[in-house]
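Supplementary Methods, section 5.1.

A reviewer requested that the exact input to the structure prediction be made available. We therefore reproduce it here, unchanged from the version used in the analyses.
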Amino acid sequence: MLFAATYPERSAALVVYGSWARALKGPDYDWGFDPIEFEGFLNSLEPHWGEAAAVNVVAPSLAHDEQFRTWWGRYERMAASPGAAVGLLRMGFEGDVRHVLPAISVPTLVLHRTRDAFVDVRHGRYIAEHIPGARYVELEGEDHFPLAGDLNAIDQEIESFLSDLIGVRRGPSPDRVLATVLFTDVVGSTERAAALGDRKWKERIAIHHNHVRIELARYRGKEIKSIGDGFLATFDGPGRAIWCAHAIRKSVRSLGLEIRNGLHTGEIEVMENDIAGIAVNIAARVAALAGPDEILVSSTVKDLVVGSGIEFIDRGYHVLKGVPYEWRLYAATL
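The structure derived from this sequence is encoded token-by-token as follows.
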């Protein structure tokens, strides 16, 4: 889903089966997995991994089929060690990409079995309701595993969906894409300029700009424009944006400068030499709240880099001027 929103020109279509945009229950998402119950499920799963431990949940119609259980146990053993399996499951359940859904512009099919024993059908309904123009099909059955139950029904829906697209060249909307927006700003620039004098300050800023552009190129960031002593740039991945901000921060320290960084991921409008949209405004507001030498990110960015190894310090909820709702912000620590 994230790829389709970020690269519409490289995505012919999107098919989502038995999935979720957010796995765990939240204040505004009460059909998600209960975090405590899910942790209990993982703890009970690990010691029995490799013994077809998950069959009862993912394929209840085959729970008493000994041939299938033997196959599934071997599948578990070949797929991952018990610790790795539990770690990957935990990581997969921590993300939240609900905000990505409205930015998806490619033809989308959402499939979900009505009585899915593992993933509540309301997850599928939510995805379909929030992706513009998505086709939603609810299928009979309780098995989450697509190769259990009526596989033909799934095949037929996907084949029909893709067949309908043949000959209908729906152009992507590259002018509106999902991107991570980075704002940088030199801390105390007015005071530094006054202390150094205009000529020396201009020389220092010119070197600063070179440092920033080197790191943007290294992390595949796109410079949109320089704004005084700061930069506006975009990235196709939030993790790379955070690492780039960190690299810039380290690089300009050699110049005796500190910078503040603000990041947000959202849908932007791409123009000839600029970008626009509420995501840009949010990133600017986040940057304004960042402290010296800090990389401050929205909760959206944090949710999208789950499993990356990047750690965060909770900075609490903030009202961003001109932006609806309160936003939870985090400082990235690398």
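The domain at 2-165 is CATH 3.40.50.1820 (Rossmann fold). These observations are discussed further in the main text.
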